[in-house]
Design goal:
The protein has 444 residues and is an alpha/beta fold. The protein has helices spanning 4-14, 27-36, 52-61, 89-92, 107-119, 129-146, 157-170, 196-202, 206-213, 216-229, 248-251, 286-294, 316-326, 370-376, 413-428, and strands at 18-23, 42-48, 70-71, 84-86, 99-102, 123-126, 150-152, 174-182, 232-233, 266-271, 277-282, 302-307, 339-345, 363-369, 389-390, 405-406. Helix 7 packs parallel to helix 10.
């Protein structure tokens, strides 16, 4: 994204800033809003949140005067350029926007908002890996047909890793492993109750922290990275080795080379590299090897590139700008999924039990190859929505299937989109792993 600052300067100078709507004014959304308020050439124009006061706080953080904010639910604003708040995403989409940032972290809300925004001809930036891992391939395909950009966010770990991946891939290096560091201890059976004290100490929602500790968030993020690169998990749940920069290349070698991997071309997480992201690549030409040794990257032929930070939603405005200025995603699925995060029972589940979603007491996520998930009809964790009813017994540690659950009579949007995704890519056959190039903008 070289020179993107100059493009933003140009937009500021001519009075044509990128106009953005935000859905979800929680921790991530608020940080995005605050950063936009310090930037040139981009404006946060509307915020949707179930708490209108929190939505207004986000607009204030973005630089607007509180007394100038309008309530979009009270009726149309006489001035479409005035900042507004709403509790209904459809109201936000009526604003004169260029892009929407989805930051709820809820698969159903994310799918609903992204689908509607694409239909409205808006770029979509997802700060919602849970929705992306579940229906991102379909949303990316729909965006391509509509002539808009669907993308994950810069600063989120999949996006930060993808930047390293693209760098190596463009230079002609073979990418062997790509992934992230994990700083939370892994306990697949963690619940909001078991992590409550730590959540209070850190000022976090206990359910959100549980989704980190039980590994679901890591599995979902690596699923997003896999689907955007074609890399796959080596084994269900990946290896999760403990390593640092001095040892990670040796740990993530093939078994035949003294490491743990059965193959290269994989996504992984590593305990000991947080909060950074990494790529292990191979150089083969003697001159390349000599140069990389000269710059002290290692002895090779396998080398690691490490970015020791990811700035989460502080970087999200760059994905908005990249979409609006260059018409390009930061990270998006290539086509049909190559990986899936499926739901595994945290405890024995009985018929009539109700699932309680990501970070709850009933299921955690496990990243596996998509071919296995399709073959065995395994349930994506993004479809284990709160209130979903268990239809037959599932033992603790077993992966749930579609046949193990029943949804409400009014089918969730994320389930509808997932059905369309599965049907679409099944019909495409061997071409399913590539999304068509973006088409020309839609006719007015």
């Amino acid at each position: 994204m070289l020179n993107i600052n100059r493009h933003l300067d140009d937009r500021e100078r001519v009075g044509a800033p990128i106009r953005v709507g935000l859905v979800g004014a929680g921790q991530m959304g608020m940080a995005f809003a605050a950063q936009v308020g310090r930037m040139r050439g981009i404006r946060l124009l509307a915020v949707c949140d179930l708490d209108p006061a929190r939505a207004a706080d986000a607009l204030v953080a973005a630089g607007w005067a509180r007394d100038g904010i309008v309530d979009l639910d009270a009726g149309p604003s006489p001035d479409g350029e005035r900042p507004g708040v709403t509790v209904a995403a459809e109201r936000l989409l009526e604003r004169p926007l260029d892009a929407v940032v989805e930051a709820t972290g809820d698969p159903e809300a994310g799918a609903r908002v992204a689908d509607a925004a694409i239909a409205a001809g808006l770029h979509v930036v997802m700060l919602n890996a849970e929705a992306d891992a579940t229906v991102g391939p379909w949303l990316a395909y729909q965006a391509a047909q509509r002539g808009v950009v669907y993308t994950g966010s810069a600063g989120d770990e999949p996006g930060a890793t993808k930047e390293l991946y693209d760098f190596c891939d463009a230079l002609g290096f073979e990418v062997l492993v790509a992934g992230k560091g994990k700083n939370n201890p892994l306990d697949p059976f963690a619940t909001p109750q078991s992590v409550r004290a730590e959540a209070v100490r850190r000022g976090m929602n206990p359910k959100m922290l549980a989704s980190f500790v039980d590994g679901t968030k890591t599995m979902v993020e690596m699923t997003c990275l896999a689907n955007a690169t074609g890399l796959v998990p080596d084994v269900p749940g990946m290896h999760g080795v403990e390593a640092d920069l001095d040892t990670v290349v040796d740990r993530l070698r093939l078994v035949s080379e003294g490491g743990v991997l059965n193959r290269y071309g994989v996504v992984e997480y590593v305990r000991g590299l947080a909060p950074g992201v990494f790529v292990i690549f191979r150089a083969q030409h003697p001159i390349s090897l000599e140069t990389l040794r000269y710059v002290r990257l290692g002895q090779g032929p396998n080398f690691v590139l490490y970015r020791p930070y990811h700035l989460t939603s502080v970087e999200t405005p760059l994905s908005v700008a990249r979409a609006a200025i260059y018409g390009e995603p930061t990270i998006a699925p290539l086509g049909a999924p190559v990986a899936e995060t499926v739901a595994v029972a945290k405890r024995d589940l009985r018929p009539g039990d109700r699932l309680d979603g990501l970070g709850g007491t009933t299921v955690y996520g496990l990243c596996i190859e998509a071919d296995r998930a399709r073959r065995d009809q395994l349930l994506p964790v993004g479809l284990a929505l709160p209130g979903t009813r268990v239809a037959r017994p599932v033992r603790k540690g077993e992966v749930l299937t579609y046949g193990d659950v029943e949804w409400p009579s009014e089918e969730p949007v994320v389930l509808t989109l997932r059905r369309r995704q599965d049907e679409h890519f099944a019909a495409m056959g061997p071409d399913a792993h590539r999304v068509p190039s973006r088409t020309s903008p839609p006719e007015e």
